[in-house]
């Protein structure tokens, strides 16, 4: 389908065209990206090396941090580099790859958040059968299904993008390639494509968000039968998960559940879920989780001991 297009590359306008603000954007988002990498890679290392974090919740947390790292990496490095250039262009193929990767890892994060909610439901509402239901094999199958589902979703996005004819102009008023800004450049009626986009990305975001809020509502309601200590621990974990869900799904629902119209605030809202949430997730899970903080201290102590022996 690409051969029928007159456009071979796109121009990304980024967040701003002002030289001074482009330097600010470069510094700010470089720091955000480095913080995202540091925080998520730290969680990945801790979960993999700590024997105390081998239960299913941390198994899913590992993949949440992995998806956060990959989601921000699919967008941030290009955006940071573009902030130093006067004219930023991206080839048609690179644009399609970015559409695929951003939707793949974004959808994977949604599915992982759902799995984390399922895990918390079983742990709190079915504690006696927790390790039987959420066995290592079951968790592995669930994560594999999440990867397959994300791939199917992303392939659907690519199919929609490749079905659009681009005759010019080729200027994308955004800092990365996504279907919403691409729809504005198509030289044909995009009503059906936009309808499919809303029914795909929009439905996944909205339905998943409602399911997650309902599931955590059930979990919180069931806590009334637990002891004060157990209620406090479960409540702390669930509140962390709910914060992550709201921070991630709020911007996604705003972007993907409306007609093919763009607003000036769209780019900043997209920044929040592509860079902001991946940065905040490690902070939320480490600052509110005593087991993760304990594992971090043990890892740091082990490193100090190893350095002293040298």
TrEMBL record:
UniProt superkingdom: Eukaryota
InterPro entries: GPCR_Rhodpsn, GPCR_Rhodpsn_7TM, Olfact_rcpt, Olfactory_Receptors
Keyword annotations from UniProtKB, A to Z: Cell membrane, G-protein coupled receptor, Membrane, Olfaction, Receptor, Sensory transduction, Transducer, Transmembrane, Transmembrane helix
Pfam family, one: 7tm_4
Annotated PROSITE patterns: G_PROTEIN_RECEP_F1_1 (PS00237), G_PROTEIN_RECEP_F1_2 (PS50262)
Transmembrane domains' residue ranges: 24-46, 58-76, 96-118, 138-160, 191-214, 234-256, 268-287
Membrane topology: Multi-pass membrane protein
GO MF annotation: an example: G protein-coupled receptor activity
GO cellular component term of the entry, any: plasma membrane
Record's subcellular location: Cell membrane; Membrane
Domain named G-protein coupled receptors family 1 profile: residues: 39-285
Keyword Metal-binding: no
Family of this protein: Belongs to the G-protein coupled receptor 1 family.
The protein, known as: Olfactory receptor
Organismal lineage: Eukaryota, Metazoa, Chordata, Craniata, Vertebrata
Gene (UniProt): LOC116554457
């Amino acid at each position: 389908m690409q051969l029928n297009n007159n456009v071979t590359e796109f121009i990304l306008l980024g967040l701003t065209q002002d030289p001074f603000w482009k330097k600010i954007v470069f510094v700010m988002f470089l720091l955000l990206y480095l913080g995202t990498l540091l925080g998520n890679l730290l969680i990945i290392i801790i979960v993999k090396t700590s024997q105390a974090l081998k239960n299913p919740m941390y198994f899913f947390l590992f993949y949440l941090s992995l998806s956060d790292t990959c989601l921000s990496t699919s967008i941030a490095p290009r955006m940071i580099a573009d902030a130093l250039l006067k004219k930023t262009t991206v080839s048609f193929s690179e644009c399609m790859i970015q559409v695929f990767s951003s939707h793949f890892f974004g959808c994977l994060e949604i599915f992982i958040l759902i799995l984390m909610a399922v895990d918390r439901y079983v742990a709190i509402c079915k504690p006696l059968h927790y390790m039987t239901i959420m066995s290592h094999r079951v968790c592995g199958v669930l994560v594999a299904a999440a990867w397959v589902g994300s791939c199917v979703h992303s392939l659907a996005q690519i199919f929609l993008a490749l079905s659009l004819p681009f005759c010019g102009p080729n200027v994308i008023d955004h800092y990365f390639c996504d279907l919403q800004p691409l729809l504005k450049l198509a030289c044909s009626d995009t009503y059906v494509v936009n309808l499919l986009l809303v029914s795909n990305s929009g439905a996944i975001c909205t339905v998943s968000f409602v399911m997650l809020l309902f599931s955590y509502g059930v979990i919180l309601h069931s806590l009334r039968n637990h002891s004060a200590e157990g209620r406090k621990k479960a409540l702390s974990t669930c509140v962390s998960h709910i914060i992550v869900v709201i921070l991630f799904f709020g911007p996604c629902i705003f972007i993907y559940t409306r007609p093919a119209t763009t607003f000036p605030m769209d780019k900043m809202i997209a920044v929040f879920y592509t860079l902001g949430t991946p940065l905040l997730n490690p902070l939320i899970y480490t600052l509110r989780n005593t087991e993760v903080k304990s594992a971090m201290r043990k890892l740091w102590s082990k490193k100090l001991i190893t350095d002293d022996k040298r």
